[in-house]
Amino acid sequence: MIASLRRLSLLACALLATPLSFATDTPTPREMWHGAVELQYAELSAASERLEASAARFCQSPDEALRQRLENDWLSAYQAWQAVRFIQFGPVEQNSRGWQLQFWPDRKNLVGSKVRGWLKAAEAPDAQDIASDSVAIQGFPALEYLLYDDAMDEQALSDPGACSLMQAITTHLADTTSALHRDWQAFGEHYLETPDYTETTLASAIQALEILEDKRLGEPMGLKGAPANGYLAEAWRSGQTVRLVESSLEGLRTGFLPGLTALLREADALPLAEAFRDQLDKTLVQASELPPGLVPSLEDEEAFRGLQSLYLDISQLRHLLGNEIAGELGLVRGFNSSDGD
Amino acid sequence: MPAIMLRRPLAGIVALSALMPFAPVAVDTAAADTVSADAVVKHYADLAHANYADALNAAQALNERIDELLANPTAETLSAAKQAWLQARVPYQQSEVFRFGNAVVDDWEGQLNAWPLDEGMIDYVEGDDYQHELGNEGATANIIANEQITVGGETLDVSDITPALLADLNEIGGSEANVASGYHAIEFLLWGQDLHGFEEGNGERPVSDYQTGDDCTHGHCDRRRSYLDAVSDLLVDDLEWMVAQWAPETEGNYRQELLAESDQEGLRRMLFGMGSLSLGELAGERMKVALEANSFEDEHDCFSDNTHNSHYYNGQGVQNIYTGSYQRLDGSVVEGPSLQDLLSQADSELADTLGAQLEATMARLDAIKQAAEAESSPMAFDMMIAPGNEQGSELINEAILSLVAQTGSIEQAAGELGVTSLQPDDAGHRF
């Protein structure tokens, strides 16, 4: 019911959408960003719908092939989210949608305790129950728990309770990402008309790289003053930490780089755009050559060296954007939500 | 914590410096109605000194009440110690605005106010309701029950519980959740775990946990007594050190170092502290995370349920810096040349706007405080964040929005006052 309503409204929205006024010649940097990100949100929404359908199929006839497909669809949708995660402003801020999709880091295993809570509940939740509960139950990490956590060895995912919970979460996720895509389209006019969003977009990408360097790699690897702790990594249950990092880098390549290049061309600083692209490509190659997980590499010297190379490549990428390019464009950073501890 | 931006779409994260008006700050002190940046920064140091002096006095009172509790453990002496703890939070939470921007405070405060903590490192906990940090070996070390603990493959002798030992144990094994000292360790030792979840009620530690001989409950009362004694002594020692850092005419202390910096650097530290506490820390870490995740594990004062006051006095601290005014615990008021005066000279409209926004935030935080302290059916912070509590989430969301709004104006004020970057000076220091 909810899913079909959602699709109807999406269709209506597509029909009613007024074409955005594009400049006659070359698109401006913000036009390029808006268009590229729209495609990324569209892919996230589509991948989430595939995941929702896949969950429904598995629950109907749980077999090994459908389970494999479900795991693949979960990872694809999670990767589609990683690709557009560098956009940390606009519709994704509404109702903490970023956290709804991925509550992380989760130091105290809130995801685990919320999932266990629902598994023990007398009645399985529907998407509405999920929508009004904690962000920790709403996103990819909660699904990851159901698919991969050791505790699920004792309770089959195909059990009615667990399967209903999974379906409720995937439906909520599909609703959220569909709304996100629609709202990004509606946000276009305001985004294009407001010059400040050029700086906002840049700063958001810089912050995404800082998080990638410090939080997504540095902290779990033990490079930030405390010992390594694999539980601080994303997707430690499924062992897909590095694949998610790779998807974020690919997302910068397709969603962010074209607009950045246009911006630097306007500023007569094209060599900086080329340097950023080259470093990004080098980093992507490094990421693609590593094993998918982070935790096993903490115990393996050679694999750890590979991770360190990736960390250094990302660090250089962050420096290029956050120092050299930001300096060239005269950016001044203000407060952000990571200023706390 | 989850690294999601928390801001209105329009509150720019950055501003083009080319667009920033550089208002040269007046240094003409001859005219009576002119405030100089130099005087404002100097008064900021005075505010810090008065605030930390109050925090020290209140901690000394707490230490005395704890000594009385240990000398004669009764419901009355336990209650008096709790009251003294609550009172000690009033100045300390206001002082947190000095933390961000002044590395001398930020590097020191972990030993006093680290949070959230894995309290199982200190004392007994109830297994089912105890959620600790994943991968933290210290989370169940229980120093009170053990003369030796093993963390990170290292075995430590903790037989003699002294202030120095607790200082050394803080963040042992590299986990910030391993909090051996400070306000929250004392809070846990006075109140105990809050096992009520989203329901009314806070920690219910029996006073018999501090009795000797056969009256002792939960075992190891002698070590628990030593712990409480040592941890409250350490708090006093630490605050004495910080008061000295801000004392006037003291050779080589932080105050001298700060005042030797340029006026711009002083203003930057003031504004950085106000903005960081408002947005990243209070609105983000302490309110938004707890609310959106419906997580009482992320409640600030989770044992005592005093979170509403911790938030309220954080907000008060931000306002103090702006108005250059601090009401001391004895009721007297420290006043002097303020940031507000200085900003008024550059842009009186912005100065008024920011002043009104800080007032609005205090009204929002007061609404939370009133709800939590209401005589009939009070709603504490951990009840406000329960799933489906619309009234509670609205109270918190209003406060968050107000803090976000004031942060936007603090950024603008920085531009007006010629503070060109709010990034901390010491790039190696992590915020």
TrEMBL record, chain A:
It holds the Pfam family Peptidase_M75. GO terms for cellular component: cell envelope. The keyword Kinase does not apply. CDD domains: Imelysin-like_IPPA. Keywords: Signal. It is found in: Cell envelope. Residues 40-319 form the Imelysin-like domain. It comes from the Bacteria. Its main location: other. Residues 1-23 form the signal peptide. InterPro entries: Imelysin-like, Imelysin-like_IPPA, Imelysin_sf. Transmembrane segments: none annotated. This is Peptidase M75, Imelysin. It comes from Vreelandella titanicae BH1.
